[in-house]
């Protein structure tokens, strides 16, 4: 498996390993492709569509599409960036995202991609759905208002924690994260040490009473935009 | 402007600018054009008490502060004090308490400076009857450039203190349950020390301006929107002014204690709120006196009246001069709020001076936790007066009840009285409404610095309309100004 694949992203030639997904090859090469449902170490999911690129002219999610020799990938085109902006805006309006007092602010990937794309306010109408907060667990809280249904908690609990605490229930706009109990998180075997709690990209799944402990200015995305960690460490050769 | 009936006429000022949200004044005149009744109506942010229900309690200091853009630190810290009780962390570490106090004094310094220089100085410098086109901070800056500069830079300095302690100049996150999330680095301290001497000097100058104005206009001030009242504030155990923490003290118009050193957690045993059908604001009152006469004033004037002394030397000297004007009896002059406010600016900068030289601010012991409780009450002195935050939570840490008494609510009745007095003195028996007349009503309200006054103000250009209508609905006179 030492064969190296060569492909181009936005005209720049990069090397990749067979079996890699486009987003993995891009990361390794220092090219940032926006994403929310993708998390290294988790099975690809392809649900948020934020990583949509044109691969040999066809739109596809970079997190699920494997690299092939000679592939030509378009990433930062104007139309793709506009498409991604619209996805981000739709995520904001279909939930109840109040960044101004959300404890994930500054560490939130949804907020961070919105800042990166220069989104100051959504252009779509807010849906203001009625959603619940499940604070029944002594150490963990689920705020469904902020859930973007990325499924990272589902995959992490199932594949890394070996628990399967979370899963999707319902369909369409009624779809939400459920727990493996009749109704409450308190009745599951979720634990404060579960890796699933660190998988949530937004402020939906939280450890209780840890809010705001990191001062403004020292939070993850206070100084550098999301993706800069990939762009600064990657190697395009 | 509202049509009236039965030989009465109603004068309406709507909206009153430089006050919280949209307010209006209604003045009812009888057939002889004498003022029968004058009322100030303000739409408040009552929604917060409802829509934070169900939220986790640790969000309160960050969420509830959003009800204000000018003194959010007051709500941030007051909610934090209440939440401290919920986590059993009310006995803060020295570093945490001093960081919070520094934030609070920075807030007091910037808010008072903004009010005095930006909003009120045009009235004081140019006169109540001056051309409205020059009654704004830009004209102050043009005619008195040094004063204009001081106002801007003093506010900036206060906000820099807030940024250093809360992370942002507006709506920071510094106070967390049981403490703070950062100390003050040496670099941050040194940056603030750089301009400290200048700020102290300018604060002295501001006290002098306010004092000179009040003394020079004392005869006018004795009647201008003035009346006897009770006064309320928190007070330190030894009777010193304390803007961050202390027991509740209420005094009557002569300075006699109504109650003293009341534990914050027991405030409901001493205070109650009345609802009136013509206003969205509640009317708080002292229970033992009752709703009719139990109303009280809060804010700088009340604090100067309730305290036995100020524990910083220059502000204490200024306080003694202030009290001498009323023979050491409580000062009940509405226009004296300005002088009292500037004495607090001087006190705040003296406190900032002390704190910046205190090495506890570089400590690393930031948070304490103790026995969990399901109810917490925080009270502090916001720039505009005593502020109450009261929360109850369930076993899941979610808020089930929230009660906020903001300073402007406590000053509701006094502001109404002030409007009534000014209306009686300047509008009664007048057939023509002058611009100066309109402004006098606002000057009286503005002396109290109602909360959010700054958020909606239009730099001295007030969108305001008064219509005088006779008993038959005929418009006698109409004056308006647009923003």
Describe this structure in words.
- The complex is a heterodimer of chains A (237) and B (483).
- With 237 residues, chain A is of the alpha+beta class.
- Chain A has six helices and ten strands, in the order ββαβββααββαββαβα.
- Chain A has a five-stranded mixed sheet, with helices on one face. A three-stranded antiparallel sheet of chain A has the order 6-7-10. A two-stranded antiparallel sheet of chain A has the order 8-9.
- The two termini of chain A are 19 Å apart.
- The mean pLDDT of chain A is 95.
- By secondary structure, chain B is of the alpha+beta class.
- Chain B has a single domain, classed as Cytochrome-c3 Hydrogenase, chain B (Orthogonal Bundle).
- In chain B, the strands form five sheets. In chain B, strands 3-2-1-15-16 form a five-stranded antiparallel sheet, covered by helices on one side. A four-stranded mixed sheet of chain B has the order 8-7-6-11.
- Chains A and B meet through loops of A and α2 of B.
Biggest interface? A-B, 17 and 24 residues
**What is the count of DSSP helices of chain A, taking H or I runs of 4+ residues?**
6
CATH architecture classification of chain B: Orthogonal Bundle
The dominant shape of chain B is globular
Percentage of residues in strands of chain A: 15-25%
Number of domains of chain B: 1
Placed side by side, the strands forming the largest sheet of chain B appear as: 3-2-1-15-16
What is the assigned CATH homologous superfamily of chain B? Answer: Cytochrome-c3 Hydrogenase, chain B
Number of strands of chain A: 10
- Please tally the helical runs of chain B, counting DSSP H or I stretches of 4 or more residues: 16
Number of strands of chain B: 16
- What is the residue-mean pLDDT of chain A, rounded to a whole number? 95
Task: Name the CATH class of the largest domain in chain A.
Answer: Alpha Beta
The portion of residues forming beta strands of chain B comes to 15-25%
Q: Name the overall outline of chain A.
A: globular
CA radius of gyration of chain B: 22 Å
Q: Kindly report the spatial arrangement of strands forming the biggest sheet of chain A.
A: 2-1-5-3-4
The fold-level CATH name of chain B is Cytochrome-c3 Hydrogenase, chain B
C-alpha Rg of chain A (nearest Å): 18 Å
Distance between the termini of chain A: 19 Å
Instruction: Identify the CATH architecture of the largest domain in chain A.
Output: 2-Layer Sandwich
């Amino acid at each position: 498996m030492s064969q190296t694949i060569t492909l181009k992203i936005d005209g720049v030639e990069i090397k990749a390993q067979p079996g890699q997904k486009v987003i993995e090859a891009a990361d390794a090469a220092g090219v940032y492709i926006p994403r929310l449902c993708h998390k290294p170490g988790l099975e690809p999911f392809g649900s948020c569509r934020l990583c949509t690129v044109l691969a040999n002219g066809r739109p596809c999610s970079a997190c699920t599409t494997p690299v092939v020799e000679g592939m030509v990938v378009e990433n930062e085109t104007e139309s793709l960036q506009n498409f991604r902006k619209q996805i981000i805006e739709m995520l904001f309006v279909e939930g109840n995202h109040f960044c101004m007092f959300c404890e994930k602010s500054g560490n939130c990937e949804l907020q961070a991609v919105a800042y990166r794309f220069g989104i100051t306010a959504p252009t779509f109408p807010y849906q203001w759905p009625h959603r619940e907060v499940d604070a029944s667990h002594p150490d963990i809280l689920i705020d469904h208002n902020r859930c973007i249904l990325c499924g990272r908690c589902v995959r992490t609990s199932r594949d890394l924690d070996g628990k399967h605490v979370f899963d999707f229930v319902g369909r369409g706009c009624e779809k939400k994260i459920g727990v493996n109990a009749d109704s409450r998180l308190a009745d599951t075997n979720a634990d404060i040490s579960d890796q699933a709690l660190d998988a949530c990209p937004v402020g939906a799944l939280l450890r209780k009473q840890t809010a705001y402990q990191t001062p403004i200015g020292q939070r993850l995305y206070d100084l550098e935009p999301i993706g800069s960690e990939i762009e600064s460490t990657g190697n395009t050769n | 402007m509202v049509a009236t009936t039965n030989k009465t006429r109603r004068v309406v000022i709507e909206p009153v600018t430089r006050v919280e949200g949209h307010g209006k004044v209604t003045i009812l005149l009888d057939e002889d054009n004498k003022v029968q009744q004058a009322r100030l109506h303000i739409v408040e942010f009552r929604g917060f008490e409802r829509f934070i229900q169900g939220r986790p309690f640790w969000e309160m200091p960050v969420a509830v502060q959003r009800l204000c853009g000018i003194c959010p630190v007051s709500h941030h810290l007051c909610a934090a004090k209440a939440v401290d009780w919920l986590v059993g962390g009310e006995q803060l570490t020295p570093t945490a308490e001093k960081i919070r106090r520094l934030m609070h004094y920075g807030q007091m310094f910037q808010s008072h400076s903004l009010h005095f220089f930006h909003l009120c100085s045009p009235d004081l410098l140019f006169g109540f009857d001056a051309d409205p086109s020059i009654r704004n901070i830009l004209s102050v800056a043009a005619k008195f450039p040094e004063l204009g500069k001081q106002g801007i830079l003093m506010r900036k300095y206060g906000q820099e203190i807030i940024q250093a302690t809360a992370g942002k100049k507006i709506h920071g996150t510094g106070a967390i349950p049981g403490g703070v999330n950062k100390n003050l680095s040496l670099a941050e301290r040194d940056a603030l020390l750089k301009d400290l001497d200048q700020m102290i000097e300018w604060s002295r100058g501001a006290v002098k301006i306010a004092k000179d104005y009040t003394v020079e206009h004392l005869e006018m001030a004795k009647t201008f929107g003035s009346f006897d009242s009770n006064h309320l504030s928190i007070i330190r155990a030894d009777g010193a002014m304390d803007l961050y923490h202390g027991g509740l003290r209420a005094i009557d118009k002569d300075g006699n204690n109504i109650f003293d050193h009341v534990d914050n957690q027991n405030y409901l045993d001493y205070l109650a709120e009345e609802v009136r059908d013509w206003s969205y604001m509640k009317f708080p009152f002292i229970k033992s006196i009752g709703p009719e006469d139990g109303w009280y004033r809060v804010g700088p004037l009340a604090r100067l009246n309730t305290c036995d002394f100020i524990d910083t030397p220059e502000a204490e000297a200024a306080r003694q001069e202030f009290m001498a004007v009323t023979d050491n009896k409580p000062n009940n002059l509405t226009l004296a709020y300005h002088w009292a406010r500037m004495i607090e600016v001087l006190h705040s900068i003296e406190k900032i001076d002390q704190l910046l030289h205190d090495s506890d601010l570089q400590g690393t012991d930031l948070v304490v936790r103790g026995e969990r409780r399901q109810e917490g009450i925080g009270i502090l002195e916001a720039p505009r007066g005593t502020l109450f935050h009261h929360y109850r939570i369930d076993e899941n840490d979610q808020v089930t009840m929230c009660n906020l008494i903001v300073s402007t609510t406590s000053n509701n009745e006094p502001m109404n009285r002030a409007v009534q007095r000014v209306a009686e003195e300047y509008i009664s028996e007048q057939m023509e409404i002058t611009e100066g007349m309109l402004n006098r009503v606002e000057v009286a309200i503005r002396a109290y610095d109602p909360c959010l006054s700054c958020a909606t103000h239009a730099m001295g250009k007030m969108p305001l309309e008064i219509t005088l209508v006779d008993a038959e609905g005929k418009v006698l006179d109409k004056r308006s100004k647009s923003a």
